[in-house]
User: Fold this.
Amino acid sequence: MYSEKKLAYFETVYRESKLSKPQDVNITVTANHIYGVAYICEQQGIIEEDPVYSRFSCGLEEITKIYINNNNKMNPIYIQCDDTSKNVINRKRIILPCFPDNDAIIKVINEAKAEVDEKLEKQREAEKNQKIKELEARRRAQEDEFESLTSGWNEMKAEKTAPKPAPAPKAEPVEDTIKTIQLP
Assistant:
């Protein structure tokens, strides 16, 4: 991930209030990942934790939603990564507060994600075609095996159903039925 070609890097400083310590917030976009330091909000099932300032990394294929919260005066960017395991949604929201050009960040991430999604789609399509070819080859092999096993069946069936010539009746010796009568 860290050795991948960097597409973009953005950084800013965020303060929750005037009295709080400033926090560095940054994001690096690579060909397959995003990583950096920001506020992370984890949700496992229905349990959601409070945002925590920490390091994050996320594959571009895991990103399900990117949006700007316009209801907040800082207009933070929310990057949502979902993982479904055992039919439970585990959601991670990466919160990037107060960047001066949110649209540029979103544009770079969306372009990189589109390329990754296109590669994944081509890979899935290739795997699907390979499975279809394997199934087709297996079906042909089964048909050939069936043909070889049943090839003599039709001839044998034809022999059984063909009328056999009736045997010629045996000639029995005919007795002479004429008797000679002798006169006295």
About this structure: The two ends are 139 Å apart (CA to CA). The longest helix spans residues 102-150.
